[in-house]
Design goal:
With 277 residues, the protein is an alpha+beta fold. The chain folds into three domains: 110 residues, no CATH class; 84 residues, Alpha-Beta Plaits (2-Layer Sandwich); 32 residues, no CATH class. It is built from eight helices and six strands. The structure holds iron/sulfur cluster (3 copies).
Amino acid sequence: MANATNDRRKFMVKTVQSIGLATMGGLLWSGFAIEAEGSPLVLRPPGALPEEDFRQACIKCGLCAEACHNRESNIDKETGEQREGTIKMAKGGEEALIGTPFFVPRDVPCYMCDDIPCVPVCPSGALDMPSLLNEKGELDINKATMGLAVVHKESCIAFWGLQCDACYRACPLLDEAITLEYTQNERTGKHALLLPVVHSDICTGCGLCEKACVTEKPAIFVLPREYATGRVGDHYVKGWDKRDQQRAGLRKADEIETQTKRSEEKPVDYLNKEIEY
Ligand code: SF4
Ligand code: SF4
Ligand code: SF4
């Protein structure tokens, strides 16, 4: 009897062990799969195609990262040493799909180089040069949409009433991509608040603001645009915006004429006649 019990116990232990191993294996595998796939929240170099297209187009050659690292402006003027480049090629355990280029602004932001050396070297078109050309056909880093800076009000000390404009001053598109909004401090009733406001139509997502932020974990940080922006839907139309009216196929209200039986007569006439329409 004791032997039978022991055998049953051994059998149970083995079963539980194999279930445990299978579960652990499953967890390890899913962890590996997530790691292999990479997070969608990574920031790509200037001109990168939309994430899915980018993953398919990038041949993981590393030329963009090399160009970023070797650019002349990356040499420290004081020490003459080459600094760490902005673009990194993802290794196992990092958030991006292994072998693809990405950057982490809190470590090294994009310095928005005028000549954008990382882009023309891309042999696959994963970094799309035409998307960065201005009306004159010149490369223009201000057209980059690497991400969008987002301010977390609760951890931004400017919203507490403390004086801080570190992100504002770090922005290469100061007073365009980021402005300071003046408002009264309702807590004290007699002081001003100067609050950072990011403008999504101008911000390139370079992350210089994130790098400069004084809080322990940045209160301003860059997210891929897809995750940082909302979308109102096509059925909302800005009545005051001619282009939005055109998009929706509408005419402006004051251009629309409505002819009814009543509008053919003068108001005084139909009021006196007590006509029912
Ligand atoms: S534009 Fe940004 S990512 Fe490209 S080379 Fe310059 S610093 Fe590097
Ligand atoms: S240069 Fe282009 S193809 Fe090569 S790693 Fe960079 S993005 Fe990918
Ligand atoms: S990411 Fe920050 S520093 Fe860069 S353009 Fe946007 S607001 Fe300015």
